[in-house]
Specification:
The chain has 17 helices and no strands. The protein is mainly alpha-helical.
């Protein structure tokens, strides 16, 4: 069976929603500088958090499924497959920024080692070139540590002890993230430029922004460590969808009203993580409308989403500048259509010319740890 035929429509819908939100948000921030899409454009950054939760679930599912197999989890396979998935597209887009000055415009480049080592997000200066790759840095850092932590829990021998340790680690990590955000927020009150401090040391920080990744991994742990509870949850699709929409709406409203407040910074991200996790559960539950929802084009956007995410921002900026030179402002519907269309087209080209060949090589020469799983078919 081909990977496309094994994909889950509900997860594709969420992934398509995530990339759409991010593209609209970046259009507002870097092209129109105005509320082009109302509150949707303002809050579109949450698409990154939805990506985090989806990725946490899908990759956590692969890890925990592999640990249950007789051959166990192969770290070389895991890292090889992960890097073949992420590096080719990343290197091509990075080369565009580094080697083509007209592509990056006036935005300054960080030292190349910061991009190549995936430490770019640490103390990231807002406004630098390829700044939106901060989220990929956090993902790569997270997935360098996650398999080792999972193997450590599994090495305890007795299954119950390992599961209890895993849940304790998840709870401790959530608490640590909230404590670090609180401390960072309070420290920032002495900063001259509060907004600059917030993004540099809190929003882009690895230790402050892993809530949704952790929530996705917690879903995978729930599925594999507590199959009876998971089965019961899968029978509550409508309730899960309603709860996910409610939690997400409350989180979005909170960020819209008081985005940079202390309590929002400390508790808003865990609430958003809860909303994302519930929506993922709803997407997986057969009785949920989200599971059965097939939005035209969503599966394609989901397939191209990683490529679109990497390349869209600068393509959108360049398209907006070109349309401005032709007399069409950033709020003009034609400018919006051209910029968004060019972003999708560039992402599709990157997917077809770079990602697809390397994914073929990965499937051909680096078999997965959990062959045949739906999670592997809809992988990040």
């Amino acid at each position: 069976m081909s990977p496309v035929s094994q994909r889950i429509d509900g997860l594709d819908t969420l992934r398509a929603l995530a990339v759409t939100l991010v593209v609209l948000h970046h259009y507002v921030l870097f092209v129109s500088f105005d509320a082009s899409f109302g509150w949707v454009g303002e809050i579109g950054w949450v698409g990154v958090d939805l990506f985090f939760a989806l990725s946490g679930y899908l990759i956590g599912n692969q890890i925990f499924q592999a640990l249950r197999r007789p051959e166990g989890l192969s770290l070389p396979r895991f890292y090889a497959r992960r890097l073949l998935r992420t590096l080719p597209n990343f290197y091509v887009v990075l080369a565009l920024y580094a080697l083509w000055p007209a592509f990056r415009g006036n935005t300054p480049m960080l030292p190349l080692w910061a991009y190549l080592s995936f430490t770019q997000n640490i103390g990231l200066e807002p406004g630098t070139a390829f700044s939106h790759a901060w989220s990929l840095c956090i993902e790569e850092q997270f997935y360098m540590l996650l398999p080792a932590c999972a193997l450590l829990a599994a090495a305890l021998g007795r299954r119950g002890a390992g599961v209890r340790l895993a849940w304790f680690a998840v709870a401790l990590a959530f608490a640590a993230g909230m404590a670090i955000r609180a401390g960072t927020w309070l420290e920032g009150q002495e900063a001259r430029n509060w907004m600059h401090f917030y993004y540099k040391y809190l929003y882009y920080s690895s230790l402050c922004r892993f809530d949704e990744l952790l929530a996705g991994v917690a879903l995978a742990l729930l599925k594999h460590a507590h199959p009876g509870l998971w089965t019961r949850l899968m029978g509550q699709g409508r309730l899960l969808l309603a709860a996910g929409l409610l939690a997400s709406a409350l989180a979005l409203r909170w960020f819209l009203v008081d985005h940079y407040g202390l309590w929002t910074s400390v508790f808003g991200f865990p609430l958003l993580a809860l909303g994302c996790a519930l929506l993922i559960l709803a997407a997986l539950a057969p009785a949920s409308p989200l599971h059965r929802l097939r939005v035209p084009g969503a599966s394609s956007l989901a397939l191209w989403s990683y490529a679109i995410y990497l390349i869209h921002k600068q393509v959108s900026i360049l398209a907006g500048q070109a349309m401005g030179g032709a007399g069409y402002g950033p709020q003009h519907p034609l400018t919006i259509a051209v910029a968004l269309g060019a972003s999708v087209l560039a992402g599709w080209l990157l997917y077809r010319l770079v990602e697809t060949p390397f994914m073929w090589l990965r499937e051909r020469y680096v078999p997965g740890n959990a062959v045949g799983s739906h999670a592997a078919a809809a992988t990040r």
